[in-house]
Write the structure tokens for this entry.
Amino acid sequence: MPKPDAALLDPARYPFSCRIEPRFGDLDLNMHINNAALVGILEDARVRFHATSGYHAAMKGLMPMVASLAVEYLDQGFFPDPLTIHVAPIRLGRTSYTLNQLVTQGERAIAFAQVVMVCVNEGIPIEISAVFRESVKPWMLRE
């Protein structure tokens, strides 16, 4: 994935955000937040987004599964300053949806991720319900 458009690096466009404090164990030998640890932090933020946005109620037992994840590392993150992860859906398909995630630390953009989630039941893709389509509208990336 090429470096994201600068407009996608504006935290004000993302209706959901959460703060996650890095752990010392998330650091690499250079004392930066490890890239693999950052992927775990992105996952944690997606779970928090789904809980806050009402995803679980709207999907009535269906589960999201990551089909694709692309991460652009934009700057180094440091311990112990908290990270803010901003999340917004950008696209709804028939059985999948795409989320953008922006990670900031202070005023700096640390990473940008785009993840495609597929709604599944027992591992089989299931069509996204009209209820979910309506419930996600307020959480979409802002213009």
The radius of gyration is 15 Å.
